[in-house]
Amino acid sequence: MNRMQRFFGWVFGPRVERESREWKYECGQCGHSESVWEAGGVRFKANAEKSYVGRCPACGHVGKRWLRRSR
Ligand SMILES: [Zn+2]
Predict the structure, then answer these.
(1) N or C: which end of the chain has fewer CB atoms below 10 A?
(2) What's the 41 CA to ligand 1 centre distance in angstroms?
(3) In what order do the strands lie in the sheet with 33-35?
């Protein structure tokens, strides 16, 4: 847990970690996914799924990635 995650958890409680773990980064190339929380981030009170351009840590592919919510 990094400082930002600790801070959000301190302010909003354990649901921050729960929600952040439901949001996953997905690679459009190899299907690799990791949760926002595992990647060191926080996503809280968000609804919109979105795509963005980034680099996949698994296959190294640079291109479209998805941020999706899964339960
Ligand atoms: Zn990939």
Answers:
(1) C
(2) 19
(3) 33-35, 23-27, 62-69, 50-55
Tell me the one-letter amino acid at 18.
R
Assessment of whether the complete model's pTM goes beyond 0.90: no
**70 CA → ligand 1 middle, Å:** 18
Report the number of distinct structural domains present in the chain.
Answer: 1
Single-letter amino acid, residue 43: R
Q: Please identify every residue whose CB atom is under 5 Å from ligand 1, which is an ion.
A: 27, 29-30, 32, 56, 58-59, 61
pLDDT bracket for residue 71 (50, 70, 90): confident
Distance 51 CA to ligand 1 centre (A): 14
CA distance 13 to 55: 31
